[in-house]
Amino acid sequence: MNELTARIRAFADARDWGVYHTPKNLAMALAGEVGELLAELQWLTPEEAGAVMEDQEAADRIRGELADVTIYLVRLADVLGVDLVETSHAKLDQNELRFPRSVR
Amino acid sequence: MNELTARIRAFADARDWGVYHTPKNLAMALAGEVGELLAELQWLTPEEAGAVMEDQEAADRIRGELADVTIYLVRLADVLGVDLVETSHAKLDQNELRFPRSVR
Amino acid sequence: MNELTARIRAFADARDWGVYHTPKNLAMALAGEVGELLAELQWLTPEEAGAVMEDQEAADRIRGELADVTIYLVRLADVLGVDLVETSHAKLDQNELRFPRSVR
Amino acid sequence: MNELTARIRAFADARDWGVYHTPKNLAMALAGEVGELLAELQWLTPEEAGAVMEDQEAADRIRGELADVTIYLVRLADVLGVDLVETSHAKLDQNELRFPRSVR
Q1: What is the SS3 assignment for B9?
Q2: Partner-chain residue, chosen from B35, B41, B43, that has the shortest CB–CB distance to C36
């Protein structure tokens, strides 16, 4: 993850994109890419969506959309100085208190 | 990242949430959390947004929203069988060909 | 619709919110409200979602989210000088050519 | 607005799209279209975004995206049996109580 963050930062720097990569702009770009991901799934039935990765072309498009979402999320977190893995673990710590396990 | 994926999977399994965690539902949840992240930034000027992490309360909320986005993204990728780091590197390989570096 | 547009404009003007209501900020707010709408539906099965308006509390929340989405969409269109009804009819004219009717 | 709702309903019926137009699917499609709208604005400065309708090509794309958002919002409301104008006025009634006017 740190390596991915560094690569995306270097990629943006090499293209002088830092000026565009403000928190607001990156958050908008993230939402735009999530919209493209939704578009891949929106007309599928739940069953079709559950088997979507068996269709090679759809699978490639979905991997591409997941990558775009990840890249903007990682870049936004980098610009804001947030460690995504660390903050996710902290949130899961909270969630474990909020949502008790099922009793079986 | 693999550890985070495994923890989120165990968290969902312990609560019998697998039935809710379909690709469509998780994509909707991801979009919902991105919406909450946007809401943290939407009325700020670009300058205010650039300094938002200096405000401790706003910073805590933004870390929490970034965590929620990450958790649903990681969970969705896990359900779809996609390695987010690998697919992001593959996309960056493509992007390096599509977008030439700035000449300086 | 024109009456609604005028009311929302007067509402914003009376609160000196014009300075916040830039196209980018309103587009972010629109996406944020759509996220809240998704959150109302995300964990429901298709059948549950199809009957959601029969649950009075859920129906009230959904009407409220649809109102928030509409208000920001109408406001954004007003700021951009776009007539939503007219542009929607123009798009439907195009869509009628793109998507032929089912033959029965 | 009622005319637009009726036209969109007839358009969907003529193509046998009713089966796809579930509340969840339409909410996802709405979010997808909002994502495309955000993408038109995301890299612009606030000043550029404020003047975006003076660029004829960008203006056409934005009108098209606003139309797509409107069409899915109107269709979703129709499927849910919600009158968007009425519920927006009811929300503005509430908002007028929640947010007092500026004192000048």
Answers
A1: helix
A2: B35
Structural domains for chain D: 2-98 (1.10.287.1080)
**How is residue A54 annotated by DSSP?**
G
Alpha-carbon distance of C39 to C61, in angstroms, equals 11
For chain C, give the mean pLDDT.
96
Q: Check CB contact of D58 with chain C, cutoff 8 Å.
A: no
Confidence of residue D68 (pLDDT cuts 50, 70, 90): very high
Q: What percent of chain B has pLDDT over 90?
A: 94
Neighbours of D84 (CB within 10 A): 25
> Using the beta-carbon criterion (under 8 Å), do B34 and C31 form an inter-chain contact?
yes
Q: How many CB pairs under 8 A join A and D?
A: 49
What gap in Å lies between CA D31 and CA A41, rounded to an integer? 12
What's chain D's Rg over C-alpha atoms? 17
Are A91 and B102 in contact (CB < 8 Å)?
no
Q: For residue A19, what is the nearest residue in chain D, using CA coordinates?
A: D43
CB contact under 8 A, C52 and D91: no
